[in-house]
């Protein structure tokens, strides 16, 4: 039996004495794209932060396995080196740090953690040029401080560029469509779709079905009250768009 890229087992998480995740179970086999849909406050983003190892989230039960190994005791940088990547809903600005400097440092930190040689400057420039052209990223944008003064679309393109350069096993995208116009959404979706691979899994978290017109999922999960309450194929996203989440919340209640 093939080992899942991601397995979440009965995960319970508390934030500031409030239970947010209440028994999440999720399995992502290699090569699949899964979407999580749900209302604000249902726990979707909390799941993404806990996967990445964000502080101040108390895990009170369950486990998270990446490639069959528990990552609960790993620091965020160790999880990244193991192949996990989180694209944030609102990427942070980092004044004083050039985008190119950040990208090269991220690649080399990952390589060092894996015992690999650092990327050479010519190799790095080639990688960035190739990936940037696919994402319609202007070279002038890469000379600016990371995310400083970037539009919403530019920030998301910069994150997808990071993802392409790091080549993670598991891509977690937390509401990547937030603040994007249709042109930017298509560019970002094309970048994500170009990374589909039999050796990589993706978890796409979103409110709206429109993103899933561009990144078509293999499985859709409905999140309500801190857990998965329904799973199905891509038609489930269309049903949610038409009917909303109320029926699932009644079921939970």
What's the short version?
The protein is α/β, with parallel strands linked by helices. It has a single domain (6-252), classed as Rossmann fold (3-Layer(aba) Sandwich). The chain contains 10 helices and 12 strands.
What does this structure look like?
The protein is built from 10 helices and 12 strands. The chain is an alpha/beta fold and 253 residues long. The protein has one domain (6-252): 3-Layer(aba) Sandwich (Rossmann fold), CATH 3.40.50.300. The chain has a 6-stranded mixed β-sheet with strand order 6-9-10-3-11-12, sandwiched between helices. Strands 2-1-4-5 form a 4-stranded antiparallel β-sheet, covered by helices on one side. The radius of gyration is 18 Å and the shape is globular.
List keywords for this structure.
253 residues; alpha/beta; Rossmann fold; 6-stranded mixed β-sheet; 4-stranded antiparallel β-sheet; 10 helices; 12 strands; ATP binding; AAA+_ATPase; ABC transporter ATP-binding protein; ABC_transporter-like_ATP-bd
Strand order of the largest sheet: 6-9-10-3-11-12
Distance between the termini: 36 Å
Q: Can you tell me the CATH architecture?
A: 3-Layer(aba) Sandwich
Helix content: 25-40%
Largest sheet: 6 strands, mixed
Q: Helices and strands, in N-to-C order?
A: EEEHEEHEEHHHEHEHEHEEHH
Classified by CATH, the class is: Alpha Beta
Radius of gyration from CA coordinates: 18 Å
Number of domains: 1
Q: Could you tell me the CATH topology label.
A: Rossmann fold
